[in-house]
Amino acid sequence: MVSAALTSPLRVGIVSWAHVHAPGLAASIASLPHARLSGIHDEDAERGRAAAGERGVPWYAELPALFERSDAVVIASTNARRRAYVEAAAAAGLHVLTEKPLATTLADGRAMVEVCRTAGVQLGSAFPVRSSAAMQSLREAIRSGSIGEVRAARGTNPGQYPRSWFGDPREAGGGAVMDHVVHLADALRWLLDDEIQTVYAELGSLMHDLEVEDCGIATLGFRRGVFASIDCSWSRPQTYPTWGGVTLHVVADRATVDVDVFRQTLTHFDDQRSRVRSVAWGEDLTKLMVGDFVDAVREGCPVPISGEDGLRALEVAIASYRSAELGRTVRIAEL
Amino acid sequence: MGTRIGVIGAGFAGTTHARACRDIEGAQVVAVAAATRAEAAPLASECDARVVDSAAELAAAPDVDLVVVASPTYLHAEHAVAAARSGKHVFCEKPLARTLEQGQAIVEACESAGVALAVGHVVRFFPEYRRAHDLIHAGAIGRPAVATLTRGSFSVAAVRPWYGDDAKSGGVLLDLMVHDLDTLRWWFGEPTRVHARRVAAGGLDYALATIRFGEGLIAHVEASWAEHAGFRTGFEVCGDAGMLVHDSRASAPLVVQAPDGGSGPAVMPATAAHESPYGTQMRDLIGRLGRGESPRVGGREGLATLSLAFAVDESVRRGEPVTWSAPP
Predict the structure, then answer these.
(1) DSSP calls for A89-106
(2) What is the ipTM of this complex?
(3) What distance in Å separates the CA atoms of residue A232 and residue A229, rounded to the nearest whole number?
(4) Nearest CB neighbour to B215, from listed A152, A204, A214
(5) Is B134 helix (H, G, I), strand (E, B) or coil?
């Protein structure tokens, strides 16, 4: 499934401009020394053409035209449309990086992993939390044994309600759980080098008058006995100084560790706009994540965060819905 | 005549409550009992009180009006019931008791003796929690939707071994999480469903609970005896029109550093307010007793919170959610 090393920059196209992360992904590609933004395709022609024009890159009305001029694509579509795009890219022999969650159903997610495997292309999942230097330090501490055995963790990934299609069950497949449970579910698997076995979740549509849940606390159980909770709620008010955040409180035998991934901010008291904002000055995690994907593809190595990783995180989201529906703990194995 | 107070227990809680009585006009600690006379002596001396041989003797002392039960949790029932039977008002440190049956026995003993029973859910007297309560009830954040309450300290079991014995203390659930369970009931009313996980191993004790209020508010509670940097509390309450956030580490008005690595008491007295919440709690109780009013946090309240803590414990043991309703 891994191709030979490239010597020229990797040509990376963006498929769909629906996702709020699309501009950040485009900027990351454009800024990398070994990658080039080869063009944009979008199901919304007007939106896609504008995005391409602003960046001085070609707009492609038809996918094959973009595929012809690309070595890899980033899929920044709505959650429900990702499978079709991944299948098209795999059929064209392109490597793929997808936004999260991988898909809206396990059937779609499994099919996406399978089609890429069969086509011999790489499928990567966009989990930038793994690129945080603080998270990587924590992982090193866990792996070296310096903090002892991890026993439990409390994670938070709350945010403002992202609006757009994120609250539409047909395009998003769910609400806050689909949007936010997956990041920390993936980070915890990676930190602990362990798999999630059980999920219990309390969910509610309590804040924004949506068809989907906007509040949720999921509690995960790992094979080796660690438990961890994730607050995935769209609970940050409009007046909150930033979009939200990602934190993890880890309790281990020899240390208790707090990670706040997006803590590196300036506080901007802005009289001109009558607001207080947090302005991030920390490293650009999206750029680091895309860079790792590009490097792996160019060198012909397995991408660091795979489609299977995306599928494992999606399983936690689906299990959260099942748990809330059944009112009990759900085992991943029963999905 | 003022309120004459007898204190049973001279550990963290007994010392704190005895000191809280010092600045209350009309209140006086007159007797202290502990497991041994030697343990009771320093606190008695500090309070100008006499040392009494045993809890039973203190409970029966004719010159005591109010008995502060601050013994280890598993002894609360024995001491509180003895005090009630001698016709004393009872202030019982939280949790009310080690078991629901013991808690029930305390409540019934006080009711049948016609004495007041106050339970030391002191968080209801912490100004940041009172302010949050008032704001939430005034609609400042709209309808509450999701809330997280956290509380942690270093391992108290390392300092006082009985805390590490679940049979005596109930561990981090009964000793620490019980504060935030009580706060949830005070702020939001009675929950309906509880799910929890806990790890108690190798000297640490840590638990997470998710508490549901019908189809509404989702609350998450963290209790930790693995906060090696020291005691801290925090909460965030998110509603459909706003959010309240508290972090004790971000609200200390006085921080002292010294070159020898020591801080606080050695250099300056640590004071965050003129009256501690423990002082407010005791002043409130003594005022109410004087006016013949019921305690702010009475036995039935303490029993309901204890019952909720046991629902958390049951969920931990069963690995499944537990439905809960307040005891009648």
Answers:
(1) HHHTT-EEEEPSSS-SSH
(2) 0.92
(3) 10
(4) A204
(5) helix
